[in-house]
């Protein structure tokens, strides 16, 4: 019985001003989810708690492990507090997840948990953990990119005016956190570690991705993973990334974008500042599909239209980057192979890199832009980087770049 799984109690914890008097107190329902503790599925109890307390209440996860054996859709919440003191542990029943994960209509991607609504406040207090049991997935897919129906750990779905803080994500199944069709979200003090303990890579374990979202702030993130640290994808606007540290992955990514033939998409007003990188491939990089469609998403496509502009990478500190600090590639085609780099009509402009320091691999840039729509207005100022021999970084490799400030292209990519 669900009464054995969660306890609903009333607590005076919320001020109401419905009668214009801010001194009037309104009781807030609190649903404390009791874990099964025997490995049976806790998802039904969690869903019941949200049904009772998801509008104007508080849902509490105790300092125990909750077993998640089935999908969870907890959307449409309002004025809801979520306190996570324990661990949500997803099962390794790969057959179930491949057949039941929830599709959200982008690149054939799916998710294990949708969480959304207005004025949601999620707090993990530095130890609330979502454990995706990802090693089972890394070994199962064996490095295959975008394996169909492999679920994302958490999708923030149609959320507004909400805060997520103090959370830990370990061994995510695929992308860790997807911010989808959401706006005015603060994501603060988040730790992500998706690393493989076998010879199979933790590919596609992005720290976070934004899609069709506006006014998203990532603050004080730590990401250790095998793919994009944080990535902005289709129709992401006004994105801010601050005071974060990234290890081993690919860096801050703009895209990939331009995957859907004839579809117009954009990425605009993105700033990443105060970021420290350790052994990532890049600091910041931009990637689009070619102008020629080959295959279909998630691993194929191309021919998309649109633009990415007003992108700023500043106050970056590098420690032993594995590749150029900054990269642009408009060459993506089927299954990640290199296609016709000069065919994309997707326009990149107003890219800015300021106050950059640390150790890297030459060249400083690798800008492979399209001949159909060259990259325009790229600025680099106060660049102080060195190679492995402690020699000043040299080399600005560029193809089809028009309008540079603060640097001169020294050769083609």
From TrEMBL:
One of its GO terms (molecular function) is polygalacturonase activity. InterPro entries: Glyco_hydro_28 (IPR000743), Pectin_lyas_fold (IPR012334), Pectin_lyase_fold/virulence (IPR011050). It is found in: Secreted. Its main location: secreted. GO terms for cellular component: extracellular region. It holds the Pfam family Glyco_hydro_28. Keywords: Cell wall biogenesis/degradation, Glycoprotein, Glycosidase, Hydrolase, Secreted, Signal. GO terms for biological process: carbohydrate metabolic process; cell wall organization. Belongs to the glycosyl hydrolase 28 family. This is Pectate lyase superfamily protein domain-containing protein. It comes from Botryotinia calthae.
